[in-house]
Every structure is written in C-alpha cells, then in structure tokens.
Amino acid sequence: MDFSKLDGLIPAVIQDAQSLEVLMVGFMNDEALELTKQTGFATFFSRTRNKLWTKGETSGNRLEVIEMFTDCDDDTVLVKVKRLGDGNVCHTGQRSCFYQQLPAGNAAGAKR
Length: 112
Prior knowledge:
The protein has about 110 residues and is mainly β.
C-alpha cells in the first residue's frame, strides 16, 4: 500500500459484504492495516486522538472483515465487513455514516 500521499494514511471504505451498503470511511496507517489483517476486525487510526482504535471496542458494534481490496493506485482500501452487535456503525446510532442526503444539483435524475 502507498501510505506516502496522506502523511502515512490511506482511506478505508467500509462496505457491508452482504448488502453492499457503504457504512463508513476511516483512515488506516500501516499498523492499523496490519492489525486489521491479523485480527480480522477493522482497525483505524484516529487523526483527532492520534491513536489506533478498533471499531466497536466500546459499543460492541464490531466490523468483522470478510474481504479486502485495494484500488488501482494502491492508496485506498475497500473493506467488506459483517456487522456485529446491533449493526449500527455510525457513532450517532445510525446504521451507516452516510444517512444525510445532499441536494444533487445537476446530477442525473435531478429536476431542472
């Protein structure tokens, strides 16, 4: 993985392996990626706390890794997971962090 572009971090897109819903985006450094591979649970690097954290370590809503892919530039990872616990991934209690819709403007399907 190319950790050089974002000061030692790569974006990690987290997707439900069954529904294919995008659940969240976090960041991983090389240690977080290795821990994710070793433990089988999604681990991230917190930019605000400047430390590693495993999703669900306090809530119990862990993310079990099913499979992982890298993008064509080798600087982003897609992690397909099984949601454990109550299944809500967002710290707000929502199922996914992507629950707030923005106006699409001129995107396909938008009214003109």
